Amino acid sequence: MSVRTGAEYLRGLRDGREVWLGGRRVDDVLDEPVLASAAHTVARLYDLQHDPELRDQLVHEGDDGVYPVSLVAPRTAQELRARGLAFRTTASATFGLLGRSPDFVNTAVTAFSSAEEFFSRTDPRFGRNVRAFHAYCRERDPFLSHATINPPLNRARASNDQDDPFVHLRIVRETSDGIVVRGAKLIGTLVPVADEIVVFPLPKYAPGDEPYTVAFSLPVATPGLRIVCREPLVADPTRLVSTPLAPYEEIDATCVFDDVVVPWDRVFFHGDVEAANRLYDATTARHHTGQHGIVRGAVKAELLTGIAVALAEMSGTNAFLHVQEMLGEVLGSLELAKAGALAAETDARISAWGTLTPAIAPVMALRYHFPRMTARMIEVIQVLGGGSLLSTPAEEDLTSELWPSIERFYRGAGGVSAEHRIRLLKLAWDATGSAFGQRQMQYERYHSGDPVRLAAAQYFGYDTTPLMETVNRALRPVPADTTTRQEARA
Description:
Blueprint lengths: L5 H6 L6 E4 L2 E3 L6 H16 L6 H4 E4 L2 E4 L8 H17 L8 H13 L1 H5 L3 H17 L3 E4 L22 E5 L3 E8 L10 E4 L14 E6 L5 E5 L23 E11 L3 E4 L2 H10 L2 H31 L5 H26 L2 E2 L5 E2 L2 H26 L17 H4 L11 H15 L2 H12 L4 H11 L3 H11 L6 H8 L1
Parallel strand pairs: 1-10, 5-8
Antiparallel strand pairs: 1-2, 3-4, 6-7, 7-11, 8-9, 9-12, 10-11, 13-14
Helix pairs in contact: 4-9, 5-7, 5-9, 9-10, 9-11, 9-13, 10-11, 11-13, 11-15, 13-14
C-alpha cells in the first residue's frame, strides 16, 4: 500500500471508537464540528503527499517501498536534511500550530525501530515487535497519536504510592493473549481523530513502579479504550473570519484504559524501571522528535512575527523608533529559532543504532527558550494591536445592510481596506488572546515537559569539557616574549 489520501484517512475514522465530548458519547467524530474540523485538517496533510509539487519532499520512494519521509531512519546528512524539509513543509501547511501532526509520532516510532536492540534487551520479542510495527506503519500509513503522561494526582509520590493504584496506567495481569492494562494516560492530543495510539514511559519512575512501565500501540477503536475530550476552545469552527485559526484546534483528551487487552505483538516494553527512565533518550526518540518540534516552532514563529509586522505597517506605527525596535526584536527571535533548527542538523552525530541523530544541545536550548520567545512575540502583537483588537465588529457585520455606512471607520493606513484590517485584527486576536491562542501558549510552555527540568537536563547532558578547557587557558595567560618585543621595536 502506498501513502494514503485524505479521503482514505477520513473513511477509517468510522470504526466505532468510544469518544466522549461534552458529557455525551460521540457516535461519529465526523459529525461533531470541532472533531470534524481537526480531522479534515489532518486529511489535508495526507493529501499533501499526493501534491505533485510536494510529493518529492514528503514521500520516500525506494527499493524498500513508498512511505512518508517521517518514517525514514536517516543515515546520511542528506536524509536528515530531507526529513527536516519534510517537517517544515507539513508545518507550513498549518502555520506550525499543529504540534502533533502525523509526522511527529512517526518520528518516534522510527527511532524506536532503529533502536530495536534496546527493546530486545528486556525481551527479544519486544525488539521484533517494534521493528514489525514500524514496517506496519510504512505499509499502512496510519495517523499515530500518543499519550505518555500520568494523571498528576500527587506529583510527590511514585506511581506505586498513589492512593488509587489504578490511576496511573498499569499492567493488571498477563495472559496468553497479551497484557491487560488499566488506568489513564495524558495528554492525548488529536487521539479522538487518530488511527492508533502509542503509549510509552517518560522518565521519573521509581523502584516499585515496574507494573507502570509499559510501552505499546493499539487502534483507537480497541474495546475498553475510552477517549474523554477536553472542552472545545472554538465555539463554531465554521466562523473563519472571527476565528481564522479554528481549523488548527488540536483537541486534547484523556485516554482511559478499562482492562484493555494489548496483544503480545503490540507490546514493546514493560517491567524495567531503569530502562523506562532511559527509553526516550537512549533510543534517540527525544532527539528526533526534538528536530520536529524546533522546525515546527520556527514555522510558528514566522506566523507570529509576520502578524506583528503586518499590524505595524497597517497602522503606520512602523515609522516610530520604539516600534521598529520591537519588530527587530521579534525578527531576531525568529532568526534564532531558524538557526537552532539548522544547528541541530549541522552538528548531528551517528547514534549507537547507526542513525544520523540531530544534536540535542540546540534542541534543548530552543525547547527552553522558545516559550519565552513566543510569549514576547504575543506581547508585541498585543501592544501593536492595542485597543483595536477589542473593537472589531462581528464577521456577520461585513455582509449586513449596516456595513456600507460604517465600513470607512475600520480602514487601515495606506489604503488598507476595512475588511482586510478586520481580518488581520481577528487573526492577531485568535493567535494571542482567544482561548485558542492561550492554549497555544500553554502548549508551548509544556510541549516538552517541565521547563525547569529541561534546563537542568541541558546542564547535566551538556559536554562542558571544551568550556572548562577555555577557562583553564584563560587562567594561564601566555607571557609576552621579550625577544620578540625587542625585535619588533628594532
